[in-house]
Amino acid sequence: KQKIKPLERIGIDQFDNIATHTQKGIDFIERFGGFIRDRSAIEVEYALKLRRLVKNYQPKKSKEDEENEFSSLIAFKNVLKEVADLAGQREVVAENLQNQVLQGILLLAKNLREERKKALNQGASLTQSLHTQIGTLDRAKRSYEKAFREAEKAIESYHKADADFHLSRADVEKQRVNMNIRNSQSEDAKSEYANQLQITNKQQQQHYQIALPEVFNRLQELDEKRTRGMKEFIKRSADVEYEVSPIIAHCLEGIVKAADSINEKDDSMIVIEKYQSGFQPPGDIPFEDLSKPDPDAANNSQTHNSSTGLNHMTGKGTTKDKLKKRVGIFGIFTGNKNNLSTDGLKEDFSDLPPTQRRKKLTAKVQELQQKVAQEQAASDGLMKMKGVYEANSMLGDPRTVEEQLNESVNRLDRLRHELLRYQKLLEQANNQSFIQHSPQSNRVIQNGQRSSRHSNGSSNHENSHEDNGEDHPDDAGSLSRSASESSVQQAQNGLNINNNGSASPESGLGTSHTSLPGSGQGSTNEQPMNEEFYEADTPLGTCRALYPFDATSEGSIPMSEGEELQVIEVDQGDGWTRVRRFSSKGWEEGFVPTSYIECTLYA
Hints:
The chain is mainly alpha-helical and 603 residues long.
């Protein structure tokens, strides 16, 4: 016997319900396809909005920001890159959903509709054929019933005629013939009915046991195919997400890595390097005793006020525009005002603060050195080519290279001239910084209140000679006037020297060799550095170095982190402390930044 599938057990009268169920199943999978379509559209829109977000928040590029990029800004740029990559992965998800899931659903729904239509048409054809056969059987049965009744009636009429003696023999014979005819017709109708009944039963059995179950089996396979396809497409939509999840995880790791790369200390140092001016803060305003008129006092007051006012303007943080205006008024730095570079600065960067100017000049010198090296290499190449052409004229004409060689030599001469010019400017800027940040320049006597043991450095010695050609180490007023007048004179020449300023640890000390205080030539306060001298100079306490310090200015000494030193003179408000230590070379004395040490003074 043929195995009957579960769907066949529903019953032959449920064919219409099965057809309705399969139609709802196909509608359902098409609705799932609509869900995938809308989800893909949302993914595309999400990716588009992410890319627009990245574009809107992309930092504007500038040459200054590229040179001094904060770690937070770099991290934010990396975050934007990762978000853009995330947008790309959402686009991949949308594309795979459309190509691998939605297209499959639409194709499956189309095939299911076609198969269902064929199955329903076949079922309808079988049903119509069965109904037609049943109709034929009904007609045959009615014909048999009619013939049977007429035959019975003809037999009854014959028996009545045969029993009636009043009828003639011919009438009786007529009734007998009619009876025989009716009986024959009844037998023929009976045979036709039996034949149609046999055909109908066979067709009905074929219909309900073979043909219609096959239709049901096809509908069952169709419905199971739809259900199985629904399962596979749901899994496939999840696989689309799984495929991009490693890349998405990598993007998220990149965002976390970008966040970890942010260093607040480095950003602070960038700000310090960017806005570090190198100007010294203004010195103390001297007391003017009006009861003792002194012609030099008025000059000192005027000179000090000029220097103080100038330093007061430069002591605060100023913008580039303010610096340009200030330079134009006071003429602190020399140079051609109309000779500007592409970034709005003067070619010699004289409109920048000292520290920023040195950085710009150093970068310019390095740039010119690279250009000179490149141009020199090009010139050497042309020389070699010319020599080869001269040795073998078959390879080329030397005159074709000579013009290029001349141009290269001219460019090289211009670059070297420009390099020499900027090297001189850089040397001048470094010399200005050397004078400005020397510890001895901060130890000049002011108001006659104090004098460092070794305050007569080389700069004061030179300024003293400029004034009167002599040194007056014991004359406090003469030293004070000399320092003040020297400050004003140098400010007019493009310098800004503050004799009472404080050089912070980040202020950019000069690049002179390490030396002891009072090492300037011609200093009358110079004393021998020996053990007897230090025995007489009782230490005030001890100090420990919190940070390493490289002595780059005159009178300062280097120290390493954690090193113990003796304090022989405390900070007098200028930001420097005089210390000494004993090494293999003997006693060493010099200045160190107060902010770099931790002092413990004796009671």
